[in-house]
Amino acid sequence: MISPSAVPLGAGVVKRSTRLDDGRELIYYDDPETTLGPERGIDARTLDPRPETASMRQDVLTGDWISIAASRQNRAFLPPAELDPLAPQTPTNPSEIPSRYDVAVFENKSPSFGPALAEAFGGVPVASDPPRGIEDLAHLGLGRTRTSVGRTEVVCFSPEHAGSFGTQTVTRARTVIEAWADRTAALSALPGIEQVFPFENRGEAIGVTLPHPHGQIYAYPYITPRTTRLLDSIDRTAPDLFQRILEFEQAGPRVVLRGEHWTAFVPFAARWPIEVHLLPHRHVADFAETNEAERDELAPLYLRLLRGIDALYETPTPYIAAWHQAPVRHARDSARLHLQLTSPRRAADKLKFLAGSEAAMGAWIGDIPPETAAARIREAVEGVTL
Fold first, then answer.
1. Residue 27 has pLDDT above 90, yes or no
2. Considering 212, 214, 277, 338, which one is annotated as catalytic?
3. Same domain for 72 and 217?
4. Which of 193, 221, 249 lies at the terminal end of a domain, its last residue?
5. Which of 149, 330, 306 is nearest to 235 (CA)?
6. Are residues 237 and 125 in the same domain?
7. Residue ranges of the Galactose-1-phosphate uridyl transferase C-terminal domain (predicted)?
């Protein structure tokens, strides 16, 4: 057993950092008034060396960079509960986390980006052919490659085998939010990182391969295509575009939930059968910039939203909960932190599949009027009790 140094964070959360056998970082985030002691188990496994950092290739038709991460083919796929790789280790389950925990974050064993970085940093290997900055990545050419520097992390919301963010307590949700803020700040400081993206995939229909309640954080070596389009829209309209969107939606019929610091709404031009955006009322670029009051309100409000989505049907709804954050060094005063929660579920037993128009051409056709969707979600959310 070891006793990692305790670092106090907001809301009474305590952070403890250690390492797995192959050198990957593992961070425990203890709930306030946790029942866990300060000691943590040592990773007693003998692990293979980490895979080489993937490479990425440029699609010259779009300028997009595609990371070719072949090691991801070997990741766990729907294991039985007794072999859950995100549960605390036991003598019969050599999982990724040596100790009992409240919330745990660790580097992905099969990363899409990293472990190599663009420059030397705390003993992390340096990539042989890293991106040379945004200008380098923006240049178009045939056969262009770069090393997929960065970091991908797994965020375990609970030691339990099954569930999601929405099944957690308010206290646990607050701990996860504190972890998101802490990791956003830490990952943003790594050499070569341009954007940090926390997200949760929920449900086999989305492609989830582990039922354990968890999410991920990607630290990209570029600004993602979706954010690039967003920044272009801001440039073509006004720096306060997000504030204008917030006021426009707050005055309309699509608001589903509103607090002192956050508003959730179905967007005016929703693509998906279930689509909800959640914006802070104050401009913040990312989770690291949120204050205690905003984080405190977000925990119960976000839980109500997710449980309302689940209340739409008799079975849990698959979704992607994508927390969009501003790039690390660009548009910090105009790109606002916000959630885009989307689900392909268009009926109890029907999913929206992206076929020719959407998948091939990016030309979307909405199945449900946003005002109709908002009314259903608002009614479901109003029935939620925490």
1. yes
2. 214
3. yes
4. 221
5. 330
6. no
7. 252-379
Domain end call among 196, 221, 246: 221
Cβ atoms within 10 A of the Cβ of 233, count? Answer: 10
Q: What is the CATH number of the domain that holds 282?
A: 3.30.428.10
Alpha helices in the chain (DSSP H): 134-138, 170-188, 225-236, 241-250, 292-310, 361, 370-382
Angle subtended at Cα 324 by Cα 217 and Cα 251, rounded to the nearest 5 degrees: 150
Cα(104)–Cα(147) distance, rounded to whole angstroms?
28
d(CA 332, CA 271): 26
Token code pair at residue 37:
């002691």
pLDDT at residue 344 is higher than 90 = yes
Shared domain check, 368 and 254: yes
Q: Looking at the predicted structure, is the pLDDT value of residue 77 above 80?
A: no
State how many domains the chain has: 2
Structure tokens at 82: 């007794």
Cα distance between the two ends of the chain:
37
Report the alpha-carbon angle 3-9-15, nearest 5. Answer: 25
What pLDDT digit, counting tens, does each position of 3-24 carry?
Answer: 999 999 999 999 999 999 999 9
279 and 370 fall within a common domain: yes
CA atoms within 13 A on the CB side of 157: 30
Do residues 16 and 75 both lie within one domain?
yes
Please state, as a whole number, how many other Cβ atoms lie within 10 Å of the Cβ of residue 87.
22
Contact 246, 254 (CB under 8 A): no
Distance CA 69, CA 56 (A): 8
For 300, the domain range is 227-382
277 is catalytic: no
Q: Look up the pTM and report it.
A: 0.97
> How much is the mean pLDDT over the chain?
96
pLDDT, tens digit, for every residue of 115-166? 999 999 988 989 999 999 999 999 999 999 999 999 999 999 999 999 999 9
| Count, residues in the chain | 386
1 inside domain:
no
Reading the block at residue 73, the tokens are 């083919």
